[in-house]
Amino acid sequence: MGLSRRLAIPNDCLSCTLRRTCDFCNLPQPAMTEFNAMGHLTLYPANAALMTEGQIPRGVYIACSGRSKLSVEARDGKTIILKIAGDRQVLGLSAVVSGGPSLITVTTIELCQIKFIERDTFLRLIEHNSRAALACATMPAREVTTSFDDVYDLLLARSSTEKLARLLLSWVSDEPRNRELRVPTEFTHEEIAQMIGSSRETVTRLLSDMKRKELIRLEGATLVIPNRIALQAIAS
């Protein structure tokens, strides 16, 4: 039986098992109780559009779990994936606070649990609660820093080969080991091309070259990097 486009679930942040020490999961009382009563929780399947570039969002989408891709459309009509947003990302924050249209399109990659809060309700929260307002001020600053690092790495790379190598390494950046690093390969060649500003054909060719040189290999739906040092030599 297929999953419908979205499915509402009980709205209970106070007893949520996904709750962690982060921006909106542990507001002090009574703000946490107020936050719990706001908006609604929804399960979205993969490929669901949460926000569309150029449109004014109705509110903010707080990702309790699951990942989404943030993309823009270039002047030539190509789609460029700017970032993969993970848990606890507050999507639509800048547009809601500024009152302007969204600069990005947000699409779920996998099953996501999302807490949606309407614009006016969210603005009242940050207007009357200093802890929530501080969190909202901190998040854009953090995103600017990470976005700068991503753009810097992309511009610094001189070729599509270097850009692809850097992208693959970023997927295993948290792994301390140098050998046999494994990561699920849920992205298509087209999506990878959108991440590095290249074409699908180029990505297919480069991945084939890397497999032939034993820099990477595929084991079912898993990408294996046998030796990170060798891939780092290409990325640098």
List the helices and strands and how they pair.
Elements: E1 7-9, H1 31-36, E2 40-44, E3 49-51, E4 59-65, E5 68-73, E6 79-85, E7 90-91, H2 93-98, E8 105-108, E9 112-118, H3 119-128, H4 130-156, H5 160-171, E10 179-184, H6 189-196, H7 200-212, E11 217-219, E12 222-227, H8 228-235
Antiparallel strand pairs: 1-2, 2-9, 3-8, 4-7, 4-9, 5-6, 5-8, 10-12, 11-12
Task: Outline the structure in words.
It is a single chain. Helix 5 runs antiparallel to helix 8 (228-235) and helix 6 (189-196) crosses helix 7. The chain is elongated. The strands form three sheets. The chain has a five-stranded antiparallel sheet with strand order 1-2-9-4-7. It has 236 residues and is of the alpha+beta class. It is 38% helix and 25% strand. The longest helix is centred in the middle third of the chain and has 27 residues, at 130-156.
Q: Count of DSSP helices?
A: 8
Low-pLDDT ranges: none
| Mean of residue pLDDT values | 84
State the strand order across the main sheet. 1-2-9-4-7
Helix/strand-derived category reads alpha+beta
The backbone outline, from C-alpha atoms, is: elongated
The proportion of residues in beta strands is 25-35%
Elements, N to C (H/E): EHEEEEEEHEEHHHEHHEEH
Biggest β-sheet, characterized? 5 strands, antiparallel
Helix residue percentage: 25-40%
Backbone CA Rg = 20 Å
Number of strands: 12
| Straight-line distance between termini | 48 Å
